[in-house]
């Protein structure tokens, strides 16, 4: 027996009906009606009024008549139906639209993730968004890289550090590979978030200020690094090799948890000495 494929038009229709019927009109502050309701939940007329669309439009959507709502209409329907974040994302996926706020990354760490970063000690860990902005870090990461508290918020960016910071520029043994892979990841993020003006401005700044970035950016390599290996020349303890892992939390998919692990016994010993200082 084969599993049926998803008919997104029919699933959209069924999903909208199900979410409309589960709502209690009293919870939305709608006025009571003299005539008894024959079906549970909201009427189509009420959803149409809340979403700012016509009743006929709602009818055609719920009948699966092949409409493809715009991103603005999808957002209005999500608000009208009081969808939870995961349901809102499901609705956008069904309609093959992107939410307007998808290009607005977090600029602060989600508190549970900031707590997780601290709890990961003694492993160095930090939290970033798709722009490579560094949002949270633990003590061990400051010892391996640098004290991020000494930087301005605009400088707390992993790509900026690789390109512009005088110490971090010479930090990686295989610098060109690290920068090349970082740029390939940044290009993928740029294509995924085309309306992120801050990211576009940051890339323009790098192209203008760094010849190496401009050269590698023009090669149009694409790569998303979920894990990898880096070798660093630390000024205090010498060479440290780390394996890194990048994890994306389900609740906060625009944030990325980066964890370093010593790649060998010598690096583990060096990191232990470094973090004990």
UniProtKB/TrEMBL annotation:
SMART domains: HTH_XRE. SUPFAM superfamilies: lambda repressor-like DNA-binding domains. It holds the Pfam family HTH_31. It comes from the Bacteria. Signal peptide: none annotated. Gene3D superfamilies: 3.30.450.180, lambda repressor-like DNA-binding domains (1.10.260.40). Residues 34-88 form the HTH cro/C1-type domain. PROSITE patterns: HTH_CROC1. One of its GO terms (molecular function) is DNA binding. This is Helix-turn-helix domain-containing protein. It comes from Streptomyces melanosporofaciens.
């Amino acid at each position: 027996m084969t599993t049926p494929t998803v008919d997104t038009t029919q699933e959209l229709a069924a999903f909208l009906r199900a979410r409309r019927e589960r709502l209690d009109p009293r919870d939305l502050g709608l006025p009571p009606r003299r005539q008894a309701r024959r079906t549970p939940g909201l009427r189509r007329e009420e959803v149409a009024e809340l979403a700012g669309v016509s009743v006929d439009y709602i009818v055609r959507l719920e009948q699966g008549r092949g409409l493809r709502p715009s991103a603005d209409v999808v957002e209005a329907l999500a608000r009208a139906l009081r969808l939870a974040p995961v349901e809102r994302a499901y609705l956008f996926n069904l309609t093959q639209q992107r939410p307007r706020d998808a290009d607005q990354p977090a600029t602060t760490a989600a508190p549970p993730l900031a707590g997780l970063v601290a709890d990961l000690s003694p492993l160095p860990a930090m939290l970033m968004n798709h722009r490579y902005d560094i949002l949270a870090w633990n003590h061990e990461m400051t010892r391996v890289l640098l004290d991020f508290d000494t930087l301005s918020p605009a400088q707390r960016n992993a790509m900026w550090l690789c390109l512009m910071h005088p110490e971090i520029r010479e930090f990686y043994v295989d610098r060109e590979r690290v920068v090349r892979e970082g740029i390939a990841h940044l290009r993928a993020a740029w294509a995924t978030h085309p309306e992120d003006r801050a990211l576009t401005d940051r890339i323009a700044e790098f192209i203008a200020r760094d010849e190496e970035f401009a050269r590698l950016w023009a090669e149009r390599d694409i790569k998303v690094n979920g894990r990898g290996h880096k070798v660093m020349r630390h000024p205090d303890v010498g060479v440290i090799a780390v394996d890194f892992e990048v994890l994306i939390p389900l609740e906060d998919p625009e944030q990325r948890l980066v964890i370093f692990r010593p790649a060998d016994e010598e690096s583990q010993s060096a990191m232990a000495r470094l973090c004990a200082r």
